[in-house]
Fold:
Amino acid sequence: MKGNKIAVVTYAGSMGILSVDRAVSLGLEIAEPSSTVLKKLKGIAFPWTSSFNPLDLSFLVTTEQYVESTRIFMKTEEIDGISLIVPALKVVEVGKAVAEVLEDGNTKPLVFYVPLGEYVMGNTQKVEELGIPCYPTPERAVDVLHISYKYYLYLRNREKI
Structure:
């Protein structure tokens, strides 16, 4: 991760807030979407949900909303890494769809937090085989983005020596 600004996409506000709290405690920033990005996010969010960051798409979240939000965040310079909070019962469907977005040359780190993922371990393993890491808590998912950023800083500083 080449910067410290992350985006969180969730279907439950409380889990998004756990991610935000962890990110802030680690020194990561929750990026504020520009008006252009915010307009795009409002276009995919339900009228009653939050289209800010974290992007809370509600329990009615669709795979297409995950795909479109991933595309939007991958294309903006305001975001360096993405954490998607994905329902356990949709993890394979969302994983396959998001993996296609990643095949388009998008290189920002992206992780999944899958609540109750231990009950669908076979499904989370299928998603990991697609190249998308899945974590059992929102904090662990954010920790990995933080470590990715720290590693980038280490490599950058090493090149200067």
Notes: The chain has one domain: 5-160. The beta strands are 5-10, 29-30, 55-56, 81-85, 110-113, 134-135.
